[in-house]
Structures are given as structure tokens and as C-alpha cells.
Amino acid sequence: MTALFALATSLLWGLADFGGGVLTRRTPALTVVVVSQTIAAAVLGVIVLATGAWSEAGPRLWWAAAAGLVGPVALLCFYKALALGPMGVVSPLGTVGVAVPVGAGLFLGERPGLMQIAGIAVAVLGVALAGGPQLRGAPVQRRAILLTLIAAFGFGTVFVLVAEASTTITGLFLALFVQRVVNVGAGGLALYVSVRRGAPALPDDGFPWRSLPALAFVGLADVAANGTYVVAAHHGPVTVAAVLASLYPVVTALAARGVLRERLAVVQAAGAGLALVGTVLLAAG
Fold this sequence. Notes:
Layout: H1 2-24, H2 29-51, H3 61-84, H4 87-94, H5 99-107, H6 114-130, H7 142-165, H8 169-196, H9 212-234, H10 238-245, H11 248-260, H12 266-284
Helix pairs in contact: 1-3, 1-9, 1-10, 1-11, 2-3, 2-8, 2-9, 3-4, 3-7, 3-8, 4-7, 4-11, 4-12, 5-7, 6-12, 8-9, 9-10, 10-12
């Protein structure tokens, strides 16, 4: 069960990342976040009412609320980074966020093994190479690298917070609903401030109604991935769940290669690959 749900997490996150990156190239990133998360919150609200999950409300939901504040920042940074591209570099770098759960364990008294130390070194080297000299292939801006690392830290924080917010399946539904409601509130406030400062909220041709199914998919796939990851982590070894769930950049990179025909320079591909290897070493250690 752990392997099944963790692999489902990889597929869902990979497709959601690809869809969010593509949508952000046509629509402001904040709008993509707010609309997609609003749809996810609405669907989760129906599920919470249908399952009676409200009965499990308690102090643990503060963890979900905290995740809801961090989530929009991470998503916004990640979608902007994906829009800057190339996705084949940005997405693997995002997996470095698994270092946050590892760091939380260290703070609680765990000590890093040789494999974890090696993972940190490999991941750092991957970051350096992914932003290295451009010879051929799609360029990687320093801003894209920075945004990706901020997003990675945010995603890792969200994983820790959501895992603490629930202990049952119905409790997970409620925690994810609270997280998404706070996501929408925080993202909506940021969008309002952005518009007040003169930034556009919509493309020049108005609300992208044709993109609504894609926006819905991104929001629902993202929340489903959070759910399957928590289920995988609760039903088996966290290391197994983390390693298998960290394969999602492969899905994003393959989608970018197949749909957008992205080509990477050797140094970029090597850096992205090393970042992914470092992530796996961290999780497995």
C-alpha cells in the first residue's frame, strides 16, 4: 500500500507541476494558485460534509492552518520558476525540500548517517551545476534557481505540518480542507495587494475560461498528492514513501520533453540529476 500511494503521489505531483508551469506562462501565477486552490477547497468541502469529518476538529488543525499559510508562497515561487524554466531543471531541484522533514528529525534528536551527509553534498553540487555556465540548451536564470529553492523549503515544511495535522483518513480530509481554505485566503490577499500595486490579475484577453479544466486539474491533483503522501507515510516506512514520492520530477521532465520539446545542456541535466540523487539519498538515509 505504501508503494502504491507513494507512486500515485509522484504521478499527481508531476502532472500538477507541469500543468501549473504551463498555465503560469499565460496567466499570472497568483491567479493560477488562487483559482486552482479555490476549486480544490470547494471539492474538499463537499467531501468533509459527506464524510462527517467535522467531528474530528481539534487543536491539530492549527498545523493545517500553518501549512495553508506556507503553501501559497511555495506554490507561487514554484510556478514562477517553472514559467521561467526549463522545467527539466526546475522540477528536480524542487525535490531538495525533502531535507526539511530530515532536518525536523535531526532537531528532535536524530543524528545524520553517512548516506544523509552524502545526500546533502550531492544535492548542493546539483544546485551549483544546474545554475552553471550555459553552453547549449535552454538557459536557466538565477532567479528561477532561487525561487525553486524557496519553494522546495516551503513544500518540505508543508509536508511536516500536514503530517502532524491528522491521524485518520477523515481527519486528513478535514486537515486538507482547512489548509486549502487558508491557502485561498492568503493567496487572495496577496493577489489583491498585487493588483493594487498595478500588476495584472488576468491575461490581456480576460479570464481564461478555456483553461478552467486545467486549473481544476492542477488544484485537485495537488491536494490529492498531499493526501496520498500522508497515507503512504502513515501506512509504511516514511523513507520508502519519501523515496518513491520524490520521483515526481521525472513525470514533469518527461511531460516537458514530450509536450514542450525542451532540450537541456549536459551540465544542466547533470545538475538536475544530481539534485534528484541527493534527495533520494537524504530520504533513504
